[in-house]
């Protein structure tokens, strides 16, 4: 298997590998990633490899899912990541996504997120997906609403985070 989970009109959603460390290094050090998602302590390519080993790759092994790479179909270039996260403090699975600055605003997050939510419902049979978002991240909140997420009545464990939830439509 080549690690491809889904293809969309313009994108390939695939498992990340250690070879993706340069992309991860750039993405997790982007100022918006640092502001809205957090500092992952990735300062070198070796740190990026450790992030991959301890994050997405470990999640694939333990949970069957994790953050996946989002690449352009035409070139194979990674432009972001989108996927499903299992956080210890929450019962439900969380959707996560982040894109390089030059690929924001082009509908890629919506296109890949729609595919990820389809995987959540059809492959993993999830009856609910949550999302954690900074109240200052208006673009992400708008995207969640476009997916059909609603603000949860439950509180996030971090007072600087809003919890949203999505329930798939019955077939």
Please outline what is shown here.
The protein has 171 residues and is an alpha+beta fold. The protein has helices at residues 21-28, 31-36, 45-63, 108-122, 138-147; strands at residues 4-7, 11-14, 67-72, 78-85, 93-99, 129-133, 150-151, 162-166. It has an 8-stranded mixed sheet with strand order 1-2-3-4-5-6-8-7.
What does this structure look like?
- The chain is α+β, with helices and mostly antiparallel strands.
- It has one domain (4-166): Aminopeptidase (3-Layer(aba) Sandwich), CATH 3.40.630.
- The chain has 5 helices and 8 strands; from the N terminus they run ββαααβββαβαββ.
- Strands 1-2-3-4-5-6-8-7 form an 8-stranded mixed sheet.
- α1 packs across α3.
State mean pLDDT (0 to 100 scale).
95
Number of domains: 1
Helical content, roughly? 25-40%
Helix/strand-derived class? alpha+beta
The best one-word shape is globular
Biggest β-sheet, characterized? 8 strands, mixed
- Beta content: 15-25%
Helices, by number, come to 5
Low-confidence stretches: none
Alpha-carbon Rg, integer: 15 Å
How are strands sequenced across the largest beta sheet?
Answer: 1-2-3-4-5-6-8-7
CATH topology: Aminopeptidase
What series of H and E elements makes up the topology?
A: EEHHHEEEHEHEE
CATH homologous superfamily (4th level) name: Gcn5-related N-acetyltransferase (GNAT)
> Which architecture per CATH?
3-Layer(aba) Sandwich
Number of strands: 8
* Alpha carbon gap, first and last residue: 29 Å
CATH hierarchy, class: Alpha Beta
Protein name: N-acetyltransferase
InterPro entries: Acyl_CoA_acyltransferase (IPR016181), GNAT_dom (IPR000182), N-acetyltransferase (IPR051531)
GO molecular function, one term: acyltransferase activity, transferring groups other than amino-acyl groups
Domain N-acetyltransferase: 11-171
């Amino acid at each position: 298997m080549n690690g491809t989970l889904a293809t969309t009109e313009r994108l390939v959603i695939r498992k990340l590998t250690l070879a993706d460390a340069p992309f991860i290094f750039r993405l997790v050090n982007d100022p918006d990633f640092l502001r809205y998602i957090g500092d992952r302590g990735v300062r070198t390519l070796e740190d990026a490899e450790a992030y991959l080993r301890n994050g997405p790759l470990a999640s694939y092994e333990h949970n069957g899912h994790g953050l996946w790479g989002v690449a352009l179909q035409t070139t194979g270039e990674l432009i972001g990541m989108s996927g499903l996260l299992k956080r210890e403090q929450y019962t439900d699975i969380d959707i996560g996504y982040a894109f390089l600055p030059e690929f924001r605003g082009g509908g890629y997050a919506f296109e890949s997120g729609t595919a990820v939510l389809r995987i959540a419902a059809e492959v993993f049979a999830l009856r609910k997906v949550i999302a954690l978002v900074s109240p200052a991240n208006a673009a992400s909140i708008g995207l969640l609403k476009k997916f059909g997420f609603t603000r949860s009545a439950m509180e996030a464990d971090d007072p600087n985070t809003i919890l949203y939830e999505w329930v798939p439509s019955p077939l």
